[in-house]
Specification:
Layout lengths: L6 E4 L6 H13 L4 E4 L6 H14 L7 H5 L16 H6 L6 H13 L16 E4 L3 E5 L5 H4 L5 E2 L1 H14 L2 E6 L1 E2 L3 H7 L1 E5 L8
Parallel strand pairs: 1-2, 4-6, 5-7, 6-8
Antiparallel strand pairs: 3-4
C-alpha cells in the first residue's frame, strides 16, 4: 500500500481489518488511500461495518492512543437490493418494483447510482429523475396486464407533453416504455430518446 492514493479492494472483508489498516496508514503518513470492502455474510453491518465505524470515531478502552482517539476518515455502507432476473420476469412471479427497475435502468444507461428510496414517478408521464442534461421517464407498473395494455405505451399525447417539458427545462428526454406509437424521426424532432423495455417484461 505504498501509493498514498491507492484504492484497496477486499472481496472477503470479514471483520474489517483491511479498512483498519488503510485508515491507520493514512493517519501515519497523511495518505489519501481508499478502501472497498465486500462482505456477503449477515454480520456485514454488525461486525464489519461496526468495526470501521469504531476505528474512525474512536475506541475508548483501546490501549493504543491513536485508536482510542479515533483514526478519522469516513465510509459509506451500502447493501444490495433484490436482483432483477429475466427468468422470473417471464413468469410474472417477480417483476421488479418501479423504484428497483428505475434505479437499474438509470445506472445501466448513464452510470448514475441513486438510492431506490428517492425514485418514483413524479408525474403521470413517469418522470423519475433529472440531471443537468436529461430528464428520465419510465412508464411501468409491476403488473403484466398493465404492461400489455395501451397505458404502458408512449403515445403522441404523452410524447407532446414530454416534449413541451423538455423545451421548458432545456434538457433531453429519455423515455423507457414497453413500446411506442411514434416514428423515430418524429421522436428525434421532439427531442425524445426512446428506450424499449425488455420484451421479457411484458411478452409471454
Amino acid at each position: 500500500m505504498g501509493d498514498e492514493d491507492a484504492i484497496i479492494l477486499d472481496s472477503f472483508a470479514g471483520s474489517g481489518s483491511t479498512a483498519h489498516a488503510v485508515l491507520d496508514l493514512n493517519r501515519e503518513d497523511g495518505g489519501n488511500r481508499k478502501f472497498v470492502l465486500i462482505e456477503c455474510e449477515d454480520y456485514a453491518d454488525t461486525i464489519t461495518a461496526e468495526r470501521v465505524r469504531r476505528v474512525i470515531s474512536g475506541v475508548p478502552d483501546a490501549r493504543d492512543a491513536a485508536l482510542s482517539e479515533g483514526l478519522g476518515g469516513s465510509f459509506t455502507y451500502c447493501t444490495l437490493g433484490k436482483p432483477i432476473e429475466v427468468e422470473t420476469m417471464l413468469t410474472g412471479e417477480a417483476l421488479p418494483s418501479y423504484a428497483a427497475l428505475a434505479a437499474n435502468l438509470l445506472y445501466t444507461t448513464s452510470g448514475v447510482s441513486v438510492g431506490t428510496d428517492t425514485l418514483e414517478a413524479r408525474n403521470e408521464d413517469g418522470l423519475f429523475h433529472s440531471d443537468d442534461e436529461n430528464d428520465y421517464y419510465l412508464l411501468y407498473k409491476p403488473d403484466l396486464e398493465w404492461l400489455r395494455s395501451d397505458a404502458s405505451i408512449l403515445n403522441l399525447e404523452r410524447a407532446e407533453r414530454i416534449r413541451d417539458t423538455s423545451r421548458e427545462t432545456g434538457r433531453k428526454a429519455i423515455v423507457y416504455a414497453a413500446g411506442n406509437y411514434i416514428g423515430q424521426r418524429e421522436l428525434t424532432q421532439m427531442g425524445i430518446i426512446f428506450c424499449q423495455l425488455p420484451d421479457a417484461l411484458h411478452e409471454r
